[in-house]
Amino acid sequence: MTTRTSRSQSTSERNQPLQTGFSSFLTNVEDDGTVTYFWRAHSITALICLIASLLYVSIVEDQTKDVEWNVKRGIVACILVFCVFGMTQVRDGPFRRPHPALWRLVVCMSVVYELCLVFLLFQTADDARKLIGYLDPALGKPLPEQSYAENCKIYDPEGHPDNPWANLWDKIDVFVIGHLLGWYFKMLMIRDYWVCWVISIMFEVLEYSLEHQLPNFAECWWDHWVLDVIICNGAGIWLGMKTLNYLNMKKYQWSGLWKIPSYSGKLKRIVLQFTPYSWTRFDWQPTANITRWLAVLGIISMYLLAELNTFYLKFILWIPPPHMLNWLRLVLYVLVGSCALRETFQYMSDPDCKQFGQQSWVTSAIVFTELLIAIKFDLPLLLKPFPRYIAIGWLLGLIAIITWTVWNFCIHRVSFRFWRWTIAKPKTTMDEDPRLAAETDDEEVDSNGDGQSAETDSSGPMTRFRSQRRDVS
Asked: In 3-state terms, what secondary structure has residue 468?
């Protein structure tokens, strides 16, 4: 019995698809395990410095009666105390370079940003604009509506006799560099060539679809597809792909600074501290099963929603595009998004990971809170009816996605498994193949069907019925 069981298990294991563990996505890392003063938590040192700073403010520093100054300093002090606590007490994330405390600080900064968004959500639109103007007196003023599709001629000697290429050069500004760098970092965050291209193209489709709500979405066709998608986004994705190829093939070897004999080696080791400790290849496998397919669709939707929030928030809260608040938000999104995508991939691919990442949780909350602010502060803007052809196009697209999902993961796969089961179904009986008796473990029943075991009789053969199971992968 033991022999037959082990033979059946080995046959079943051969029919199962090969399962790759999460470790197969990780690069090879060699670390001598040196733990120096630099890597310690320093929680007591941070507490002493914090108390000393508060002691200086309360006893040594002269008091001022400027209410505005005191309120601003008090808010900043609250944020700093929370960040110091988080840098020493929040659990580590997936990144270790240049120091885990930096990524704990990023988590705290994202929590502070989420708290600010929640506070704004409980205000009115006018009060929220006044609060933002309280941070910077230049804010809190209505923005002019601007469209970039008035004149779409690339070469216009009649409209601009002095500079016929004026329309083209007007579109080439600092935001071109922002597009390129943004997609370079997005490629490093998502680490998938095709997913990045889907997001890039879909956002341009969204800009076409929402021109009736935000005038600055209106751009010339060559601005949409040539300047933005092909040149800026394409160059950023290509550079990011080349960087990924290097990081995937690089061998990561780490040793303590004081174990390196030469000064040039020490200097190189200091510079390498600001490079990744290791690297993880992302293989999202969106068509592996319906769970991963829906997860990848969710990631794409979250990216597109975060991009749209950028434009809607600055339009509703009257924040000019070049303002520092927009750039700080984008930098924060790069940091939190990198950590969140890494945690999300591990949650999807590592069977030992049972908990959704802390940075992924905060990032999801930020994106949806920004959306709720836009809905609350200017709902009529978001409820402007879509043009008929735009609505029909989106309806057909959603129907196509739903239809393909049902066909691929329900109808096609179920019918394919049934077909394979039919092909693999055995058609030989025991009398035709006596070896079948040695391969199966099912009970023998007599021809009367009473469920009792059939006894052998030397007077003649006895008809036997057997059931055979086959694993179909």
From this structure: coil
Is the torsion defined by CA of 128, 133, 136, 141 positive or negative?
positive
Please give the pLDDT value at position 240. 95
70 contact partners, CB below 8 Å, separation of at least 6:
64
Kindly compute the dihedral angle of the four CA atoms of residues 24, 246, 36, 267, in this order, to the nearest 10 degrees: 170
Residues 336 and 359: beta-carbon distance below 8 Å: yes
The structure's pTM equals 0.81
Distance CA 294, CA 245 (A): 27
Tokens (6 digits) for 410: 């329900």
Encode pLDDT of 165-218 as tens digits: 888 888 887 788 888 999 999 999 999 999 999 999 999 999 999 999 998 898
Render pLDDT for 58-115 as a digit per residue (tens, 0 to 9).
Answer: 888 888 888 888 888 999 999 999 999 999 999 998 998 899 999 999 999 999 999 9
Handedness of CA 334, 339, 343, 345 (dihedral sign): positive
Taking the C-alpha atoms of residue 4 and residue 472, their distance in angstroms, rounded to an integer, is 19
Q: Determine the Cα–Cα distance for residues 201 and 225; give it in Å rounded to an integer.
A: 9
pLDDT digits (tens, 9 = 90+) for 233-281: 999 999 999 999 999 888 888 888 888 888 898 899 889 889 999 999 9
Q: What is the pLDDT of residues 386-402, one digit of tens each?
A: 999 999 999 999 999 99
DSSP state of 23: G
By C-alpha distance, which of 336, 314, 379 is closest to 132? Answer: 314
Helix (H, G, I), strand (E, B) or coil at 389: helix
The structure tokens 């923005």 sit at 143
C-beta pairs of 333-336 under 8 Å, 24+ apart in sequence: 333/306, 334/185, 334/189, 335/106, 335/109, 336/106, 336/107, 336/110, 336/362, 336/363, 336/366
| Two tokens, residue 304 | 């597109």
Cβ neighbours of residue 238 closer than 8 Å, sequence gap 6 or more: none
Between CA 167 and CA 8 the distance in angstroms is 73
Q: Would you say 366 and 113 are in contact if contact means Cβ atoms under 8 Å apart? A: yes
Q: DSSP labels for 39-57? A: GS--HHHHHHHHHHHHHII
